[in-house]
Amino acid sequence: MQVSEAESVVLDVLWRSHPLGADEVVAALANQRDWQEATIKTLLNRLLNKGAISAARDGRRYLYSPLIKREDWVLEESTGLLKRLFDGRVAPLVAHFSAHRKLSKKDIAELRTLLEGMDDDQS
Description:
64% of the residues lie in helices and 11% in strands. It is mainly α. It has a three-stranded antiparallel beta sheet. The mean pLDDT is 93.
């Protein structure tokens, strides 16, 4: 499922808390984005039409909930990025960020910990 960057912002609100009415989604985004209410409702409708969220009637309004898990979406997006840019390989991605000095000391320490944990699992 293809989710645009703007749609992912709306989904993020619903992943943090759901179900929510459109007015609650608008309120949650008020401080983050300079979007009009109509824009947010359009994004909700797009997500609904894609099957990414559901809408349940609650009196005179609808309550929206995500149908896709954030973890599944992140996996799909990151896999697509790796395939498009790095032939599906992680090492060239890390090398790219390393070559452009985009890895902090904390990032490097976390990568070392991950790799050591993977070595331990394979022993």
